[in-house]
Protein 1
Amino acid sequence: MKKKRFRFQQLIMGLLLLTNLACMSDLDTDQVEDLVLHPILEASLIRLEIADIEASAGPLPIEVSDFLEYDGFQSGFVPNHLIRADIFFEFENSTAKIFQARIEFLNGNGQILDSQLFDIQSAVNTTPFITNRTITYEGEQISVITNTQIIRITASTNALPPSVIDNAKLEFKMSGKLYLEIE
């Protein structure tokens, strides 16, 4: 019994030794120099609601404008590593009015870097009209995103029919998906 136990222990020790030797290799620390990361960041950028405009709001056309000072793209990390940006726009109109909207990206001096126009149809009965668009900025166009400090939203209408929906409004949402490359 002692002999069998001794052989069994030798066999186990021998297998463990072979297993450890078989798994050993030199560690290549130079691999870290070739490492490239491609993180993707997603964020909601703007959400804006414009209450229904009443007929007594003034002479036509009526224009509503707002802006947001935005320095989210100004940090040293994002502009230095940004290779692509997908910007998603969505308008939801639950009013009986047809709108035209303009989104402008401006630099710190107020210079327009890019502008997007949207024709937004009125709601049908009680069903809101939804307009979606995605704009991709990459290559030389990426500077529009990295230099943007102000986002201006302007909506205008030439008609003021009364809405049949309670709490009717024009809602705007903007979000982004940023693709980075870090070496």
Protein 2
Amino acid sequence: MKYNNIILFTLIVLSISVGCQSNENSITNEEAKLVLDKVETMHIDVDGKLAYEILDSSYIHYSPLFPSPASGIDAYAYNIKSNLRSFPDFSLKIDSFFVKGDIIYSYWTRKGTNTGSLGRMPTTGKKINFSGFTFYRVKDGKILEEHTYWNVLELYKQLGFQILPPVFEEK
């Protein structure tokens, strides 16, 4: 019985001490706001230079557009330049965010006009407006990892593309 009490007491003390420890990797709302302000600006930076200031050298980006994660600052800077060639007035607006530990969770809206080709897709001249959700893992003011989620189909529909059902041949 005495042994059980000692174990119980030890577990309670450990639980309290672990729960009361501050997470040294935590970021504040103010720090998150600074990072997100730079993210908004980075997405209209034609030269892609701001990406090197805000992204960590080990940066990884997960997106519904990429079959596998995009790694490195150069890949992301290229993506920004490519987007701005297709949508010169492309903008990113962080609508809201919250912070938990070293993660910034953000809800955003993108707008722009397609005046340049988008990969192999022709220019449409159409305006787009879509929203999504991103979370950023941050350390020392730099983004290590980004996970972006949005409805790609919504973008294609706004550009005028149609989804056609498959045609099945009868046997």
Protein 3
Amino acid sequence: MRLGLPSAEFFSTNVDALSTQPYYLRGVNNYEFYGRWTVVENVPGSMSAAEREVLTVLWNRGPAGVKDVHGWLLESGQGWSRSTVITLLQRLERKGFVRSDRSQHAFVFHPVMTREQVMHSRMLELADELSGGDPLPLMAAFTQQHSFTAEEVRQFRELIDRLDQNRKKRRAP
């Protein structure tokens, strides 16, 4: 469900008045709000599969120039031209996923968001799309339909224990 959203000025001047109302809202001036009117993160726009492939190279290999990114993509079997790679990096920069360091002769592109931040953003989009913004049904459907190893189940338990401990710490005076 998409709502007609108030202006950014409304949010900046009325946060205290609204803080008693829990909700999930996405897309106000490219920010995500979650819980009680708390800014979670600045969320870039959507990413194409090609852009994601280029960003994955930067995550796996680290900051790099166009020549290196293009070479690594060629090694992996991706036959894009250099100009295509430049276009994809420019799109990623314009959308806020990467930034370029222009202090050297060749631009060096750095990921701005971690893989985990992008996954979180995508999961919120899916939750919004498929379950009215509630992430629990989405997670439940995934866990019920996927076969996990004993090690993965152990890691889930550790994660849940950490989440529970953090929640208790926040409650403590």
Protein 4
Amino acid sequence: MRSNIFKGLTIVILILGLIGGIVLGFQIPSVNYNTLSSEFNFGLMIGSWIGTAILSFIFYGVYSILLYLEQLGAGDENITVNTSSYQNVNDNNSKNNKSEEKADSSSWKCPICGKVNQNYVGTCGCGTTKPVSNTLEKDVWECPNCHSKNNYSDSSECPKCHWKP
């Protein structure tokens, strides 16, 4: 409905611009200094028509955009969208996907939402940052003989009892 206002304004601008250009041509005549006579000012008329055309294209563009938005349903206050059913379906799908997803060596699992992300992703979609993995904890092993905690990066045998795995 609002697009019709801009369509009407475009037509009014075109008509007034065309008529106004002709009137300006007569009202502000060009002066020829050699003969001291006044003539019709074509330059002013053409300039006003060009300005009118540019302004009309702008208003017609706004009219076209508003018409397209009205066809999509924008601006209708009676339209209500029920997103609760979509959210329930989306929640069920995400729960099913979380249980099926397993983190491998090239990915990490978010501790908050359970989404499996690639290693190059630093922040999960839920906003949780990638947990910092402690490589020492992965390499720590307990000696079955003396029960001391050892690190593979130090040596492959227990430094306390010299047991080799």
